[in-house]
Specification:
Blueprint lengths: L4 H26 L4 H35 L5 H15 L1
Helix pairs in contact: 1-2, 2-3
Length: 90
């Protein structure tokens, strides 16, 4: 599955945001910050990671739909693989 460069740029942006949030969580723990604040930041990082994964999968599903329309026989196999990947994130 090939993902277009704009999608990858968006995914990388989300991953860098998550990377910064995880760094912030580590710093908060080291500083002894309130558990509620730490969990809030950790949840935000988890959402950013999930969104990056779902963005890749959504793009792949869109490509599979185009391949099926064009009569590509491999589209069904790609769709099954994407379904497994989606379930791993869900």
């Amino acid at each position: 599955m090939d993902v277009d460069s704009q999608t990858m740029a968006d995914v990388i942006k989300r991953l860098r945001r998550a990377q910064g949030q995880v760094g912030g969580v580590i710093k908060m723990i080291e500083e002894g910050r309130d558990c509620a604040d730490v969990i809030t930041q950790l949840a935000a990082a988890a959402r950013a990671l999930d969104r990056a994964g779902f963005k890749i999968i959504a793009t792949g599903l869109q490509q599979c739909a185009v391949e099926e329309k064009d009569g590509d026989g491999a589209a069904g196999a790609n769709r099954a693989q994407l379904e497994k990947l989606f379930l791993s994130l869900a």
